[in-house]
Write a structure and sequence with these properties.
Blueprint: E1 2-4, E2 11-13, E3 27-28, E4 34-35, E5 37-41, H1 70-83, E6 88-92, H2 102-112, E7 117-122, H3 127-137, E8 141-145, H4 151-158, H5 163-175, E9 182-187, H6 195-205, E10 208-213, H7 231-238, E11 244-246, E12 257-261, E13 267-271, E14 284-287, E15 292-294, E16 302-304, H8 306-310, H9 315-327, H10 347-350
Parallel strand pairs: 5-6, 5-14, 6-7, 7-8, 8-9, 9-10, 10-13
Antiparallel strand pairs: 1-2, 3-4, 11-12, 12-13, 14-15, 15-16
Helix pairs in contact: 1-2, 1-9, 2-3, 3-5
């Protein structure tokens, strides 16, 4: 059995069976998908309290002893890059910038997996002080979460008045050469009217903007399929100011559909996670802050790697358990199915 710590009562899941799995080193699943994009959550802590992600009081604290150490994170990055075919690693949270050892994590990870691209998903608060040193340590680029440029709307959505700090972080990332710099905006009813202003701002600064449909991963369980803002509604709003033409995806596994803006070359991306599911092309594998493999964003099945990291197991034993975990990956999130059950973890505890 595999122990899974969620900051909640301990759940136990059976270790996935490898029956039928081909003898290949990559993270292949039963549907032929290969995971080449790794997301590692570094913490459940965050400096914001976005309503679609965290409760007002924050997430339950994970005991420090249960969180992966600097060296353990780097070791997993090395295993992923050298044994499992992972090509890009994204550090997430919570908010990864609250980890005081983040620069060391990036530096050691870059050394453990040469050639693997390292990036960061962040809310941008504090990035103005760390962007340059992170770039020097080996970070390639950043994704900054920013849903609106309206300060009052930002304060209401995030429960914090920190918009200037986010904008300072974005400017610092650009100055440090962390490119391409992307901004992710979650589609919310209260900020939909701000979307065109956000796109205009991004175009002026050469920032790649991507809108994301809200998913049922909020701590308050307020998400409803029939009231969410979907891609079609967003397009209608953006088209009141911009001419948009379909431009496909950067590659088949990329989640964002790209749209040429006013004839290009600039584009805007829309990640229609709910209304236009891209599960069939998913190439992601996830590690929680406690060191468990999470094969699917919406699946609560998790496979513990931390115990192997700490019991003297070699890299191949860890890699093999990781392969078995991904072999059992679900076909899709099934949000529109009557049998759909919301994940136990919220987005802040999973890592984006």
């Amino acid at each position: 059995m595999t122990a899974v710590a969620l900051g909640l009562p301990l759940l136990r899941r059976p270790t996935p069976s490898g029956e039928g799995r081909p003898d290949v080193p990559e993270l292949v699943d039963r549907f032929g998908r290969i995971a080449r994009d790794l997301r590692i959550s570094l913490t459940e802590k965050c400096s914001l309290r976005c309503t679609y992600c965290m409760p007002a009081e924050g997430l339950p604290s994970i005991p420090r002893s249960q969180v992966l150490s600097t060296e353990e994170v780097a070791r997993l990055v090395g295993i992923a890059g050298t044994r499992l075919g992972v090509q890009e690693v994204r550090f997430t949270g919570g908010e990864p910038l609250v980890r005081p050892d983040l620069v060391d994590i990036v530096r050691l990870s870059a050394a453990a997996a040469p050639g693997v691209r390292l990036s960061l998903t962040t809310n941008g608060i504090g990035l103005d002080k760390k962007a340059a040193v992170l770039a020097a340590a080996g970070l390639s680029r950043v994704n900054v979460s920013l849903d609106t440029l309206d300060r009052e709307h930002f304060r209401t959505l995030t429960r914090r008045d920190r918009l200037p700090a986010v904008l300072d972080g974005i400017a610092a990332a650009q100055a440090a050469g962390l490119a391409p710099l992307k901004v992710n905006a979650v589609l919310m009813r209260d900020t939909l009217d701000d979307a065109a202003d956000l796109l205009g701002w991004a175009l002026e600064r050469g920032i790649r903007l991507r809108f994301i449909e809200q998913m049922p991963l909020d701590a308050d369980a307020a998400w409803r399929r029939d009231s969410m803002v979907d891609a079609e509604e967003l397009l209608a709003v953006l088209r009141t100011r911009f001419r948009l033409e379909p431009h496909g995806r950067e590659d088949p596994s990329a989640p964002a559909e790209e749209w040429l803006v006013d004839g290009g070359p600039a584009t805007v991306g829309i990640i229609a996670s709910v209304s236009r599911s891209f599960c069939g092309d998913c190439d992601r594998t996830r590690i929680t802050a406690e060191g468990s493999v999470r094969a699917c964003l919406f699946g609560d099945d998790e496979t513990d790697l931390r115990s192997l990291l700490r019991d003297g197991s070699d890299d191949e034993a860890i890699a093999e358990r990781w392969r078995l975990a991904m072999w059992g990956k679900r076909a899709g999130h099934g949000i529109d199915d009557e049998s759909f059950v919301r994940p136990t973890r919220t987005m802040g505890a999973i890592g984006g």
